[in-house]
Specification:
The complex is a heterodimer of chains A (195) and B (94). Chain A contains 8 helices and 2 strands. Chain A has 195 residues and is mainly α. Chain A folds into 2 domains: 110 residues, Orthogonal Bundle (Rna Polymerase Sigma Factor, Chain: A); 78 residues, Winged helix-like DNA-binding domain superfamily/Winged helix DNA-binding domain (Arc Repressor Mutant, subunit A), CATH 1.10.10.10. Chain A has a two-stranded antiparallel ribbon with strand order 1-2. In chain A, strand 1 and strand 2 form a beta hairpin. Chain A is globular, with a radius of gyration of 22 Å. The relative contact order of chain A is 0.11. With 94 residues, chain B is mostly helical. Chain B has a domain of 64 residues. Classes of the chains: A mainly alpha (195), B mainly alpha (94). The interface between A and B is medium-sized, with 40 and 30 residues.
Chain lengths: 195, 94
């Protein structure tokens, strides 16, 4: 913060803006967390990338204001923007879901059934899709928490700080999400063995 | 397969890669606030910069968003010089 004498003669305080190197550091430290938050909210990797870009774009546009902010304050600011954006994007999701339904209802749009023997990569992709579908069925609060832990690599304390909830709540949501997933994926394994 | 393995495999498919993150960063810092294109994969160029990659030096990172005034000055000067040379009358033998 620096004191600046304006042309009217009055002194005012002005923040020193965040420079490109500081912005790069903020981006590197928080991009995974922000992206994983949006993965939890949208379930779509590319939509999450778009929203992540939007968060950091706003951060870059407001670098004057963020210049003197502490690390924790910056992260809190990022997640406030992220939460507001995800509310806006949720409004669009209704439209997107309608289009998706129209596509899945159209037999021509469905992927062809592959009868050739599946390679390990195909099996792994199929498994990841099954896990993703099971995660998508979780309640939103559990889904976001799990995505931040699994994809963002955040600890319970970090997730709690980002979401503004107690760490105990985060641990409870994680444990509930894991219990549900274990049950769902276990039943998927059983179905597979029966085939 | 354990649940942690499943989650790790899923996370690998959704995580933002370093290359994608770098592209996002460059779009924000180099392209400028008004015109940062979408981060979506479809139709996305490998690296979006507002001017040729050779000009996207580290010094550009410290400049405000958009092309710097000095870049425009140099470009305009070079363009004017080329136009003058190209349109200069040539002596033709009688």
């Amino acid at each position: 913060m620096v004191a600046v004498l304006t042309n009217t003669g009055s002194a005012e305080t002005r923040s020193s803006p965040m420079n490109a190197a500081e912005f790069r550091r903020l981006f590197e430290v928080n991009r995974g967390a922000v992206h994983s938050y949006f993965i939890g909210r949208t379930g779509d990797r590319d939509a999450a990338a778009d929203l992540t870009q939007e968060v950091f774009l706003r951060c870059w546009q407001h670098r004057d204001r963020l210049g003197d902010m502490a690390e924790d304050g910056r992260r809190a600011w990022l997640f406030t923007v992220a939460r507001n954006l995800s509310i806006d994007s949720a409004r669009l999701a209704g439209t997107r879901a309608g289009v998706q339904r129209a596509l899945t209802d159209n037999p021509a749009a469905r992927p062809a059934t592959v009868s050739a023997p599946a390679s390990a990569a195909v099996l792994a992709a199929e498994r990841a899709a099954v896990v993703g579908a099971a995660i998508a069925r979780l309640p939103q609060t559990q889904r976001v928490t799990l995505a931040m832990a699994a994809a963002g690599g955040l600890t319970s304390a970090q997730i709690a700080a980002a979401l503004g909830v107690p760490a105990g709540t985060v641990r409870y949501r994680l444990s509930e999400a894991r219990r549900t997933l274990a049950a769902e994926l276990g039943s998927y394994d059983d179905e597979k063995e029966e085939r | 397969m354990s649940l942690d393995d499943d989650l790790a495999a899923w996370a690998a498919t959704v995580r933002l890669t370093d290359a994608d993150a770098e592209a996002v960063f460059r779009r924000i810092v180099l392209t400028g606030p008004a015109a940062a294109p979408s981060a979506r994969k479809a139709g996305r160029p490998a690296a979006v910069t507002a001017f040729p990659a050779a000009a996207a030096s580290a010094t550009a990172l410290s400049a405000p968003a958009g092309l710097s005034p000095s870049w425009w000055r140099d470009y305009t000067k070079g363009f004017a010089a080329r136009m003058v040379t190209a349109t200069r009358p040539v002596l033709v033998a009688a």
